[in-house]
Amino acid sequence: MFAVIRSGGKQYRVAKDDRIVVERIVGQPGTMIQLPDVLMLGGDGKAPTFGQPKVAKATVFAEVLEHSRADKIIVFKKKRRNNYRRKAGHRQHQTVLRIVDVSPTGTAPKFTPTPKREPAPIAKKDKKAKAKAAPKQEQAKPAATEAKEAAPAAKAQKELTKQQAKAPARKKAAGKAKATAKKKPAQGSKKGKGKS
């Protein structure tokens, strides 16, 4: 059996165990509520029953699963040539419902709340075990891999000592070039000429 209900100015086609999202409805999660605005009933091989405007006595019972908010929409207003712009975001409040039963007579069904699904917590012992296991793996390296890792460092040290050995010779050559530049007077300078 299905029904067409009205909630929050909108119409929804619902059947037992359907999940729908409607405008915010007052009610705590895990409680059962009534939706009395039934506009049409159908199903079970019978001709559909239309209300004028509602079907008499018919009620839809639903469980409130959660209250949430819809995705954000951007509200942008503009008046051209008037330097008028307004930008705002909006998230509509909504309620998630599970349809418990569609009752043409209005009698309430037996109700048991849906159990909440909670994510399984990560055990603290597992985190500690992983933290302890990581250092053990580092200690278990074979001696051959340590020697391979030490080889590049030794090469870098040798190259550094070679560069340091060459550095004093470069400094001496640079010093000699400066000394010769000082001895030679620049062309067109008055230094070394007599008074005129």
Structural commentary:
The structure is a single chain. The protein has 196 residues and is an alpha+beta fold. Among the domains are: 2-103, no CATH class; 144-178. Helices cover 29% and strands 35% of the residues. The chain is built from two helices and ten strands. It has helices spanning 124-139, 143-183, and strands at residues 2-7, 10-15, 19-23, 32-35, 38-43, 46-50, 59-69, 73-79, 84-90, 93-103. A four-stranded antiparallel β-sheet has the order 2-1-5-6, with no helix packed on it. It has a four-stranded antiparallel β-sheet with strand order 3-10-7-4, with no helix packed on it. The model has no long low-confidence stretch (mean pLDDT 81).
Can I get a quick summary?
With 196 residues, the protein is an alpha+beta fold. 29% of the residues lie in helices and 35% in strands.
What is the N-to-C order of secondary-structure elements (H for helix, E for strand)? EEEEEEEEEEHH
Biggest sheet strand line-up: 2-1-5-6
Largest sheet, in brief, is: 4 strands, antiparallel
Q: What number is the mean pLDDT?
A: 81
- Find the structural class using helix and strand composition: alpha+beta
Low-confidence stretches: none
State Rg: 43 Å
Number of strands: 10
Question: Helical percent range?
Answer: 25-40%
Number of helical runs? 2
Net shape:
elongated
The N- and C-terminal alpha carbons lie at a distance of 124 Å
Strand proportion: 25-35%
